[in-house]
Amino acid sequence: MSTLDTRTLSHLDWLEADAIHILREVVGQCANPALLFSGGKDSVCLLRLAEKAFRPGALPCPLLHIDTGHNYPEVIAFRDRRAAELDARLIVRSVEDSMARGSVVLRHPNESRNRHQSVTLLEAIAEFGFDACIGGARRDEEKARAKERIMSFRDAFGQWDPKNQRPELWSLYNARVHPGENIRAFPISDWTELDVWHYIQREGLELPSIYFAHRRPVVHANGLLRPVTPLTPAQPGETVEELRVRFRTVGDITCTAPVASEADTLDAILAETALTTLSERGATRLDDHASESSMEDRKKAGYF
Amino acid sequence: MSSLHEFPATDHGLLRFLTCGSVDDGKSTLIGRLLYDTKTILADTLHAIAATSQRRGLSELDLSLLTDGLQAEREQGITIDVAYRYFSTGTRKYIIADAPGHEQYTRNMVTAASTAHLAIILVDARRGVQTQTRRHSYLAHLVGIPHLVVAINKMDLVDYDQAVFERIRGEYLDFAARLGIKDVRFIPLSALHGDNLVERGERLDWYTGPTLLELLETTPAAHTERPESFRFPVQYVRRPRDAANPELHDYRGYMGRVESGEIAVGDPVLALPSGRTSRVRDIQIGGVSQSSAMHEQSVSLLLEDALDISRGDLLVRPDEAPPTVRELEAHVCWLAETPLSPACTYVLRHTTREVRARVRRITHRLDLNRLEHEPAVQLDMNDIARVSLTLAQPIFPDPYTLNRATGAFILIDESTNDTVGAGMIIEPGASPAP
Question: Is cis: bond before A56, omega within 30 of 0?
């Protein structure tokens, strides 16, 4: 009974179905995967997709968060509450523990811990024997990510070798690894920032409050707004202002900048995202400006 | 086109396309121009490109810098790997797979082509059809891309001369006919000046066909151009044992994606390899029921009978079952540094099913420059050949020309776990057993 079916999925439905397919491939092929959940908007989408992929019943893998100890308390509270609501197993491993063990050594006490997350992640992978970590990275975020596979192979040292990636054809993903090696799987690789916001709106997903416009003390630094917090105090000569801001991306306090915004609803954020002239990382990351390839360098060393 | 980033009022879904061409025929500029004219490039990205262009002493903005993401690529000024780019119009989302043009990167082109529904093949108007043009066209055709667009670029450098366009068009059609390529469209354009990409421009007024973007917007979506059989490879079987929820005691969900066709509650299904039949009792996404599912949807199927089904099995309609085969004839593109050897056993991944496979015979290798067959005893990286395979367990394939999802496979080297080959099935089981 072959009949010509000219219906097509909307682009959001297609992206959703594709991500569910990838999630099921990871769980189908790997013995012990983990889903990275930070409470950020991309991982909120990922968690929703995992629910859609595997409901009813419990999620087939634990949630894992690598905590730098420098996250916004609202985000950590949100992370814990969402995990509890879903009755999911949440594993948190902390960069501070790696520092106590001596595997992370800061060059100076104020150095950002962001890039050191890689060490703690690799330690968590070894501790639990994870053979795959599912993350919410997107190819539109950054140039090096645009070339990464959906199932990205990492060797026993957690290293990504961009010139020697496994070819990835059709939807035939190869997540096979030897013991000690690891797959990083990115189900929303083909989503853009705007797709993420549309999906959050369509699915009615809850987000940490700092994604919406709120008043916050900031200083202007290198063309970005830097939040003024106990970790990131104003430097001599900087003028502290209290502005209406929101975060487009949420991560370590020392490297994530808010943007000036009045958008306090999803509709308003969508309107702003559609009209913005700055890319997500360009507008918000205090750590990607160092060189043309800072992300690639971090990823080669095991960063997500 | 004034509201490019608004949520589509009519959503025509998503189109994946491939761009390919020789070095220097303006592919990166074409992509840069598409992103720029659809307002996808943001100001800070543009500033970064401007700064880099200036640092390298270029007089103009080098839009190709948008697509070269890796350190080694920037150092060498070449594109090594497939890059994916995204843009959206009022009605469609696009995923561009940008494949490098170098001869040694056949495997990248095949990779990029494997998921594409349309290919843009760039031709430099000054040079006409080149060896690379023929290679790329042949590969796009072999990998089953249904729509080819030949973009005759740099028309500004031939004074927008219609005669040049017509001559290249004729030359291309000649060899396309020999390869059996049917659906091919031609557009004269200048990526540098933006003529006929998003805006029509005034210098090509003799051309009355669609602009490149108009063509992308109106290309039919995948799966909508001919009737297809229902194919549902099982990815994962869900049997949640939740003591607190007695309703889940007998729950048995077969999770997968409808690779082609459609299915509705009440329809009969046949499970392979068991050969048992049942009917669809429920179709769910995230535990929520729906009455039917169509191609490309990821769902869970619940059946009326408790069949023994696991990952790697296939659900189909009883009256359109594919053959059960342990012999294959296929085109294989070799992707690895280590040559293909008939002495080796590989893991063959077909849909969600893995079996062991051995190459029984290399019928012939394709000479991609002369587009002729030649004898071969081994396959090196970037070679494409027709081979016969013997499988240790059966698979249930369709010919690749009828179904790209159930006609494709990859070969994996078990010692390294690397993906070493990409296969397209010509005839399932058509060759006699040895």
Answer: yes
